[in-house]
Amino acid sequence: MLFSALLILSLHVTRAAALWPRPRSLSTGSSFIRLGDSFEVVAEQGELAKELERRLAKAIARTSRHLQHDRLRRLTPDRGESDRPQVENAPILSRLFLSLNSTVVGTLEDEVVNLYTLDESYSLSVPAATDATSPTASAHLSARTLVGLLRGLETFTQLIYFLPAADDALDGLRYIANVPLRIEDRPAFPYRGFMLDTARNWYPIEDILRTLDTMASTKVNTFHWHITDQQSFPLEIPTFPDLATFGAYSADRIYSTVDVAKVVEYGQDLGIAVMLEVDMPGHTASIANAYPEHIACLDARPWSTYAAEPPAGQLRLGRPDTLAFSKRVLQDAAKLSSSAFFSSGGDEVNKRCYLDDPETSAALESRNSTVDELLDEFVRGLHETLVESNKTPVVWEELVLKHDLSLAKETVVMVWIDSANVRAVADKGHRIIHAASHYFYLDCGAGAWLGRYANGTSWCDPFKTWSKSYSFDPLFNLTREQHELVLGGEALLWSEQAGPETLDSIAWRVWLVLPRSPRAAAAAEVFWTGGSVTEGERSVGEALPRLHDWRYRAVQRGVKAIPLQPHWCALRPGQCDVEL
Amino acid sequence: MLFSALLILSLHVTRAAALWPRPRSLSTGSSFIRLGDSFEVVAEQGELAKELERRLAKAIARTSRHLQHDRLRRLTPDRGESDRPQVENAPILSRLFLSLNSTVVGTLEDEVVNLYTLDESYSLSVPAATDATSPTASAHLSARTLVGLLRGLETFTQLIYFLPAADDALDGLRYIANVPLRIEDRPAFPYRGFMLDTARNWYPIEDILRTLDTMASTKVNTFHWHITDQQSFPLEIPTFPDLATFGAYSADRIYSTVDVAKVVEYGQDLGIAVMLEVDMPGHTASIANAYPEHIACLDARPWSTYAAEPPAGQLRLGRPDTLAFSKRVLQDAAKLSSSAFFSSGGDEVNKRCYLDDPETSAALESRNSTVDELLDEFVRGLHETLVESNKTPVVWEELVLKHDLSLAKETVVMVWIDSANVRAVADKGHRIIHAASHYFYLDCGAGAWLGRYANGTSWCDPFKTWSKSYSFDPLFNLTREQHELVLGGEALLWSEQAGPETLDSIAWRVWLVLPRSPRAAAAAEVFWTGGSVTEGERSVGEALPRLHDWRYRAVQRGVKAIPLQPHWCALRPGQCDVEL
């Protein structure tokens, strides 16, 4: 007991603010302030107030729900009981004022479309005490965009701790420690994403919406929706409804245009853009359920000769009506998504599939072309359509590295095979989204999923721990001039061994945004806060207590995030550290 | 589409019965039978019927709920649609008759106490067609014990597939394929367990009860409840209520005697014994919150010198009142548990902790004893109490191997460090429970959980895949005479990185009983069905489709078991196999 008391003292100092991601600038005091019973979030009076109120009504309602339902007690052995005397006697915080410091108030829709050039910064201040002339005090949040305000509101909710009422009254005390407090915050990188594969196994819309909530809680701004793949095609394409009718796992496992619109709108309210990916020309065997004429080497055996995983099948190259079909699919899909980016995929294209396909090999011969030349023509055709649809094309790294396609400089490249390849992509002048499998693949570490493979290991073993994700350096090995090519990064959940049953626990291990556990949350901090572990700007030891706070709060919000340590350790920062 | 049709034909042959664990003997036909709308489970008329009805009322109600709520369609590309014509025209199965072929009808309570010497066998037959004199047919389940009937009822529910009604009527069709069907089944090993650590992180009672349901669905018969540890002491000990009051994480994270009784009773209804473990003398730092006088080297630093994980602290040896206290704790705990076995733990006892503890080192000197001699005296004292309480003592392997204690031959030994140690334990004549960390530790593979340990690996990496668990050979390296010493085995979930949020998804990967996924289910089959992979009696390829069936059914019953493969593969056995 003595031992616990000693510990609390030090915690008050070290755990000033358990924010995730860490703000770029934070100053704190040592006083307490308590939220009044009628605490409210209000827009400042002024000419923008009405517009603000309308636009921010949902965000304010969401913030109020969090303030109401989050009942996170301090993660200390006494769960904050020693705060009680100070909290009970603390001055009252009666409101949070919001102000938008911009003469141009755009719509949230516009802001989400322009997210990667948008100012997401915000300032937040919480005073220490009431001034003499007023019985209560106000906190202030200001930003230059609506999205900036959303980011700041999330930070504000993470400041609040809870103590149950001593007399068993209906409700407890909500308070902020370490006031006065001032935060100046802005992201290090504009693109901070979470990718979910909904084709290997299917996820209900409600699981996706809950995931967006968790993303927002870590300031991740892009839902990269890998919506189709070789095993199933669950996306409704209005021009070709048979694609989903015959390509989805079943009639109740289709994302209709209404469903996608629901996700897009939900994202908009949270300042999250939805970037769809319709992977082409590989990973498309499921298209053959409705349109077999477009697919080469369908279900060819042995599958491992023709595809990275079963079943084999790729869109035919050098066949004009297949290109026209593929362009039309992308045109329809582009209309459904809100991000300015759209991914046409392009990973794991198998050459042998085309060489052994009679139709494609005839085209190769008659045109005296190589597979890569036909691939170049195909991808440039797809991108023409995307540009016409006002989308910036995004591709997986192989298209520019392995196949050396002549894609427009504007094309954004996702590097997944090895982050060592980032430099080569930058040398070609492309902008980069980090998606390194050895840091950010949330599904790795469960061994092989292929059948008849006792003791089988997987190429992507081992499990990527949160501290591994957290140690990623986004600017490693790039020249100073290349730094601006890094748009950000994402955590990725491929679904061969994941599904709605395990979404929360697998994704939310540490990336700052995602679902099995805080892993996705770790990635979120890397790309919001920036800095590197090796240069001492980021420390796993400093991060862990904050991550515990984030995780306990996420669990209260209904996210089944995995525990990172025994509860005993979560209450005692540093005491479960390794001794080197 | 053509391709799918071809596949279905072969599935009808290969997936005769998707039972998990696989019965010891199974014969099937090729007809269908459909469950009537008023299908019922009834005890056969006779002198035992009344007794049976009373005892089995709950089991029958549970079976009826499963029959009602399980809506598992065949795992084929057409989800069983091609069965429809045969199902619609199939004869009607109107009831399942139960009979108990024993002149001695015991109570379920007695049977659970005597589980490891009990006859759990059963016979189940489902006819192909009605006979000429009766419009409907009956299935028959018989056993020599109530527990045997419970095992058979679970098997029966796993035979049923569902097809939605073609005309959107209120309910669908339930049917059994491959009748006539006859099963003769009995376990290969009497002890089939699942261990849950509720001390590192705490689990609500409802999560434990749901876990018991899942255990029952794979015929696992023992809930090994590792209920206390160094981080917290959540068990109410009536004689020493302060142990939980000060040792639990909080007042709402205590298992009261009423809570434990609820788990015991729920287990009894399912034929599951609850084996409590109060680990001693190591893993007891949490006792110091109430009784610091009994704990040596409490929170000594660096912790890694004194304990396997923080915080350090062990029950003092050579101190009479500490032994008396410990015996009294076990005496109280023994009364709460239903298994004939009780574990006093004994793993990871740290010698340095005692040598550096002034009080213990004084005792060592004054008695001219070694630590192992005092340990021997302590453990034998504990076991004396357990035997007086009608419990067979169970210990971790170190006590007989590393410390070479002179424990009674009756003492059961759990081998966890390495299954290679099983032989040495058998050579000492002890009975064995397999708990091999490299096969059955469900929590491994998530990397280190200690803080400030970037990229840290864990001793128990990598993740144990279901096929790894499934490849375990319980009799490996033992002499023919030693085979009878193997009581069985268990899957284990330690909770440093697990909690109620992830229980289902972590445990139920493949052991036939447990929660993140079917991993616990894999262990269940190993110890029910027996056989070895190397000798060809067990095959990962044969098992996978059955495990998919089990997993899809478990999800329908509310268990969030992780997907083992893309849904596409689950519907197409063999097509996602590795090509060697």
Automatic annotation (TrEMBL), chains A, B:
Q: Enumerate the GO terms in the molecular function aspect.
A: beta-N-acetylhexosaminidase activity
Give the positions the UniProt entry annotates as the active site: E348
Keywords, comma-separated and alphabetical: Glycoprotein, Glycosidase, Hydrolase, Signal
The protein depicted here goes by the name: Beta-hexosaminidase
Q: Does the keyword Signal apply?
A: yes
Where is the Beta-hexosaminidase eukaryotic type N-terminal domain positioned along the sequence? 19-159
Record-listed E.C. numbers: 3.2.1.52
**Source species of the chain:** Rhodotorula toruloides (strain NP11)
GO terms for biological process, alphabetical: carbohydrate metabolic process; glycosaminoglycan metabolic process
Record family assignment = Belongs to the glycosyl hydrolase 20 family.
Q: Where is the Glycoside hydrolase family 20 catalytic domain?
A: 189-530
- Tell me, what's a Pfam family for it? Glycohydro_20b2
What reaction(s) does this enzyme catalyze?
Hydrolysis of terminal non-reducing N-acetyl-D-hexosamine residues in N-acetyl-beta-D-hexosaminides
Record's GO cellular component terms:
membrane
Q: Which Gene3D superfamilies match?
A: Chitobiase/beta-hexosaminidase domain 2-like, Glycosidases
Q: Which residues form the signal peptide?
A: 1-18
